[in-house]
Specification:
Layout (H helix, E strand, L loop, with lengths): L5 E5 L4 H12 L3 E8 L18 H14 L3 E5 L1 H17 L6 H20 L4 E3 L4 E6 L2 E6 L16 H4 L2 E2 L7 H10 L3 H4 L15 H8 L3 H5 L3 E4 L4 E4 L23 E6 L4 E5 L5 E12 L9 E6 L7 E8 L2 E11 L6 E6 L2 E8 L2
Parallel strand pairs: 1-2, 1-4, 2-3, 4-7, 8-11
Antiparallel strand pairs: 5-6, 8-9, 10-11, 12-15, 12-17, 13-14, 13-16, 14-15, 16-17
């Protein structure tokens, strides 16, 4: 039996999770691999071949690596729990005129819980994933910080994890750059992993066509919602749109309306099936409210706290002041930011450390 204990590694068949398993095995952990079947894309009626973490090829790749290395591998089917929560939330948020982030919700409510349940069943002290983030204990808190590779850092999608779950979590890749991980794959004898293409789409929408997905999931959505009004910020009707769920805050392309100048979606009003269009300056805001927040670094916030706030995954972040007001977080940015999208995640940092995050309300 390993002195370091047993660890259950989430394996998608891609390079990051594969190197995670190989690294931990090399370091002396007793590794057990597990691949989660979250989504059957064929059932959604999409036009593309099933890709990513849910197709048979990647599942077989994960299993073969485990067999070659000499550790057990299991496949679990969590399509029902994934679909009931993540898919329903995804559709519901768009129908409410918001822009959801399903990866955050999946990590928070589905993947970690599913992994830890199986870890308990298999006698594993830890779970591990291939996220590019770092983790440590300090002042009796488990703290997540950014991965060394700023281009790959994934701390943004981890803000919802509980302290209880983080105490059993390992992120072996956080102290490495992607180029180093690719070289490790070669050194371990898996050069083909370093050449695998990576998917950045939502796992259940591999063709990246969320509008098509909504059309297939919401019966009659086009008939019910097509023909709503595009209006200006002062209420003037500018034209007709295809249905408010098919637009997102900050969208410029695909509006199919000519105004003689760049225009953007600045507000979505589901109750009246209205999409408000404006100029770039109309997207600029200095205040934001965040609900359903979770704290990582601290048990509670100071009365007012200076932080760096990210409002989307690839956002560089903007310095701001946050404070808790009536169970929500008020964010006052040091300068105006563009395209704050309700439904997306707002994530707060103290240097490289993840303070926590929540869902943008307005």
């Amino acid at each position: 039996m390993s002195k370091k204990g047993k660890v259950l590694v989430a394996m998608s068949g891609g390079i990051d999770s594969s190197v995670t398993a190989l690294l931990l095995h090399q370091q002396g952990y007793e590794v057990i691999g597990i691949t989660m079947k979250t989504w059957d894309y064929a059932s959604s009626g999409g036009s593309k071949k099933e890709v990513g973490c849910c197709n048979l090829d990647t599942i077989n790749d994960a299993r073969q690596l485990a067999v070659n290395t000499g550790f057990p591998h299991y496949i679990i089917d969590i399509r029902n729990e994934f679909g009931e929560y993540i898919i329903d939330n995804f559709v519901g948020e768009y129908m409410a005129g918001r822009t959801p982030n399903p990866c955050v919700l999946c990590n928070t409510h589905i993947k970690w819980e599913a992994l830890l349940r199986r870890a308990d069943q298999l006698g594993c002290a830890f779970i591990a994933t291939g996220h590019y983030a770092q983790i440590r204990e300090e002042n009796e808190r488990i703290i997540i910080s950014k991965g060394i590779d700023s281009h790959k850092d994934q701390s943004y999608v981890l803000w919802g994890l509980s302290q209880k779950n983080l105490r059993r979590t390992l992120f072996p890749l956080g102290k490495y750059r992607k180029t180093e991980i690719k070289q490790m794959a070669v050194n371990f004898g898996y050069e083909e992993l370093s050449k695998k293409s990576e998917s950045y789409e939502i796992c259940f929408i591999p063709d990246n066509d969320y509008r098509g997905f909504l059309k297939r999931k919401v019966e009659g959505i086009e008939d019910k919602l097509a023909g709503g009004n595009f209006v200006s910020t002062n209420g003037k009707v500018l034209g007709k749109h295809k249905g408010y769920p098919f637009y997102t805050i900050g969208q410029r392309k695909g509006l199919e309306i000519a105004m003689g100048k760049p225009i953007y979606v600045v507000e979505i009003i589901p109750d009246t099936n209205t999409v408000v269009l404006g100029e770039e300056e109309d997207l600029q805001k200095q205040e934001m409210w965040v609900k359903d927040f979770n704290l990582i670094k601290y048990e509670s916030l100071q009365s007012k706290q200076e932080v760096l706030t990210k409002i989307r995954y690839k956002d560089a972040g903007t310095f701001s002041t946050i404070e808790e007001v009536n169970g929500e977080i008020k964010v006052l940015f040091n300068k105006k930011v563009s395209a704050i999208a309700p439904g997306q995640s707002a994530v707060f940092y103290d240097g490289d450390d993840l303070i926590g995050g929540g869902i943008i309300k307005k």
